[in-house]
Design a protein that fits this description.
This protein has about 550 residues and is α/β, with parallel strands linked by helices. A 7-stranded mixed beta sheet has the order 18-19-20-17-16-22-23, sandwiched between helices. Helix 3 (about 105-120) crosses helix 8 and helix 4 packs across helix 5 (about 135-155). The longest helix is centred in the first third of the chain and has 20 residues, at about 80-100. The chain is globular and about 85 Å long. The structure holds nicotinamide-adenine-dinucleotide (NAD).
Length: about 550
């Protein structure tokens, strides 16, 4: 039982029982599955789907899930077909009426319990991230914490759903607005934050009274399934959250199912644009967050040492596989650029690259062999285009992990806006320095770029910082903050081709995205009042 006690004048709630992590059976992972599918004749454990609160298998196509640190396939994930997606939507549709009728506070309590279960199992979830994504464990714990904060915010949904009330909008007439759930909603998420991004979506969607079908990345699906299992333990009725694994076939089935009313997507820009267009064509509400190429401006008056340290984490953290990563530094003045490059070189020399399980490492591997090849290709292209490769991490080998998808940090100087390595999202540990002569020139570069997810400025000049944040055409701006990822009670989203749709992810925008407004006008005439028909338009005149 949760014990309540007063501590230092504040009321605190202790959930000791929930803090004790207990061993969870991994219901979604089936060891050594035998099926008729010849491509699955190996003995890898198999990851199925989570439908109606149960693990569901089937004779599906499948693909291997790798440990990027060893390069070995460790699991196999099933890829849902149309029938499986239909079964998930059936389940969500069936669960909707009762869940919609559940008082918001009871729905919020499920989120509160889930929050404690996630805290108790944070290391387990982070371990799954390190195993399948490859990010270092400390970074994975940060991701889990950010996900938990979204669950905490979803527990506040009753406050966000209150609507507005006005008395006496006319004689004996009151008016109010309500935010009602949409029905079945769905989310499609990327590989780089496999635990956090799903938690941007479904906790708020279900806290608002919707049911949900999640399609996580097929490259690292386990954490989303484990969290779905915890949600059932927290009291989420079967069918309120379903998880289907899959690829384009599953995504298209979700978009095309007329019972799915809203789609949230996070991933690369070409897919975001496709999902937005196809979803809108089918009459759905769609928010699709896409790729990024974030610039950090370093002004001549900046604290260079601090700026360099901040840039290191922002460029190379999670191997550069973050949509808010900084792959470009725009240095104002050659002296600034020289100092930044010198500082970065020195700190890169100290970086430790290796398996994420080893707490001493700063950076793990890339997600797949194919992605590593792609990033290496970009580095070669930068060299061919004439940028100066100051640090070349291409040949890095990690002893004992020779088949892992590792590469070392790379640093380019003299990057020009005409170069492909300037224009395209590389999504790897590659940082480029662009030299400009003024803040105006830096801002024009950023404004002209197709992406507008995040940016930041390092300066001691308040006026310059204010001008920058006021005018720059980017959705999330940091001032001496390299990764300005909003906290859970603000919303997250870029501008330009980093987003398709109006409402941003999580925070207050999520409560709007997952509800529709209804306005009710009600009259209870005083007894005995009789009125004739009126043909003029009603007004308060
Ligand atoms: P991706 O676009 O390849 O995949 C994202 C999701 O879309 C996955 O679930 C995948 O299965 C599905 N998908 C892939 N191809 C599809 C197709 N042809 N049709 C339908 N669905 C398809 O992205 P990714 O490689 O998993 O993630 C990295 C990308 O995500 C980067 O571009 C990164 O910037 C972006 N990202 C953006 C944000 C943001 O908030 N803006 C956050 C995280 C990641």
């Amino acid at each position: 039982m949760a014990a309540r006690r007063l501590a230092r004048g504040r009321l605190t709630v202790s959930f000791e029982c929930l803090r004790q992590p207990r061993e969870h059976v991994e219901h979604w992972l089936i060891p050594k599955l035998q099926t008729r599918d010849r491509s699955m004749s190996d003995t890898l454990p198999t990851i199925g789907h989570w439908i109606d609160g149960k693990n569901v298998l089937g004779e599906h196509r499948s693909q291997e899930v790798f440990d990027p640190a060893t390069g070995k396939a460790e699991k196999r994930v099933l890829l849902a077909d149309l029938e499986t997606v239909k079964a998930a939507v059936d389940s969500a549709q069936k669960a909707y009426p009762a869940w919609r009728a559940t008082p918001p506070l009871k729905r919020a309590r499920v989120m509160m319990k889930l929050r404690h279960l996630l805290e108790a199992n944070a290391e387990k979830v982070a371990g799954l991230l390190t195993e399948e994504h490859g990010k270092v464990f400390g970074d994975a714990m940060g991701e889990v914490q950010r996900g938990i904060e979204n669950v905490e915010y979803a527990a506040c949904a009753p406050e966000l759903l209150k609507g507005e009330h006005s008395r006496n909008v006319g004689p004996d007439i009151d008016g109010w607005s309500e935010l009602q759930p949409l029905g079945v909603t769905a989310g499609i998420t990327p590989f780089n934050f496999p635990a956090m991004v799903p938690l941007w979506m479904w906790p708020m969607a279900v806290a608002c009274g919707n049911t949900f079908v999640l399609k996580p990345s097929e490259r690292d699906p386990s954490s989303a399934l484990f969290v779905a299992q915890l949600a059932v333990e927290a009291g989420l009725p079967p069918g309120v959250l379903n998880v289907v694994n899959g690829d384009k076939e599953a995504v298209d089935a979700l978009i095309d199912d007329p019972r799915v009313h809203a789609l949230s997507f996070v991933g690369s820009t070409p897919i975001a644009e496709y999902i937005y267009a196809r979803g809108c064509e089918k009459g759905k509400r769609v928010q699709a967050l896409g790729g990024a190429k974030n610039h950090a401006v370093v002004m001549p008056d900046a604290d260079i040492d601090n700026a360099v340290s901040a840039l290191m984490g922002a460029a190379y953290g999670s191997c550069g596989e973050r949509c808010m990563a900084i792959p470009l530094v725009v240095a104002v003045g050659d002296d600034t650029a020289d100092a930044v490059v010198k500082g970065l070189r020195a700190q890169i020399a100290e970086m430790k690259v290796g398996p994420g399980k080893d707490a001493n490492n700063d950076m793990g591997p890339l997600i797949t062999k194919a992605h590593r090849e792609k990033v290496l290709g970009y580095v070669q292209q930068g060299v061919d285009e004439g940028a100066t490769l100051v640090v070349d991490g291409r040949d890095l080998k990690v002893a004992g992990h020779e088949d892992g998808f590792f590469m070392g940090p790379c640093l380019f100087d003299h990057v020009k806006p005409s170069m492909v390595i300037y224009q395209e999202e590389i999504f790897g540990p590659v940082l480029g320095v662009v030299r400009v002569s003024s803040l105006e020139e830096a801002m024009k570069l950023i404004d002209d770029h197709e992406y507008g997810n995040g940016t930041c400025i390092f300066t001691r000049d308040g006026e310059a910082a204010r001008y920058f944040s006021d005018h720059i055409l980017v959705g999330m701006v940091g001032i001496n903050v390299p990764l300005p990822v909003p906290v859970a009670y603000h919303s997250f989203g870029g501008w330009k081709r980093s987003i398709f749709g109006d409402l941003h992810a999580y925070g207050p925008d999520a409560a709007r995205f997952y509800t529709k407004r209804k306005q009710i006008t009600q009259r209870w005439p005083s007894a005995g009042v009789r009125e004739g028909a009126k043909f003029s338009f009603p007004s308060t005149k």
